């Protein structure tokens, strides 16, 4: 999985007043959990743009000068009016400990069902996986090449040895459904066929 480095400074002062001063200076107060004790630090708001405003998932290297920590974004708070970042929580990664993370689903292939007039419905845009940090994928590849109209792609189809899914086996990732236009055309054709049969029966 791709990683983004956040350069920050460890905080000595915590609390509302200290956090407000940081925000006024264009910085975001943060906390890193998962270690021996919570670590408070801050970083420039602009440093988080590639981490927060993207559909992709990244691990994070928190660089505090004399210390570096591997982590993932755990929680983020935005201002309800301005949408400015108010606070971010991170969780420290350990090489020997598995972590659960939501990973984006990426579609690949051309489904015969779509070529026949069906439409693709993506039921799961992200899937939760559990793996060691080194085995976390950038995305889950869902191959729809075999899907006909009415077919569904289930989670076990996407299984890999490097990670496991935290979803029931009957979870539908995506499916090809008949389009409304095709459904209406089929209904109209059925009505016409029924009417023609009635008319033929009446003339006999």
UniProtKB/TrEMBL annotation:
Protein's name in the database: Large ribosomal subunit protein bL25
Keywords from the named record: Ribonucleoprotein, Ribosomal protein, RNA-binding, rRNA-binding
Matching Pfam families: Ribosomal_L25p (PF01386), Ribosomal_TL5_C (PF14693)
Gene Ontology CC: one annotated term: cytosolic large ribosomal subunit
Sequence ranges assigned to domain Large ribosomal subunit protein bL25 beta in this UniProt record: 99-178
Record GO biological process: translation
Subunit structure as annotated in this protein's UniProt entry: Part of the 50S ribosomal subunit; part of the 5S rRNA/L5/L18/L25 subcomplex. Contacts the 5S rRNA. Binds to the 5S rRNA independently of L5 and L18.
Lineage: Bacteria, Pseudomonadati, Bacteroidota, Flavobacteriia, Flavobacteriales
Gene: rplY
Family matches, as SUPFAM superfamilies: Ribosomal protein L25-like
GO molecular function: 5S rRNA binding; structural constituent of ribosome
Family: Belongs to the bacterial ribosomal protein bL25 family. CTC subfamily.
Domain of life: Bacteria
Residues covered by the Large ribosomal subunit protein bL25 L25 domain: 6-90
Keyword presence, Membrane: no
Entry function: This is one of the proteins that binds to the 5S RNA in the ribosome where it forms part of the central protuberance.
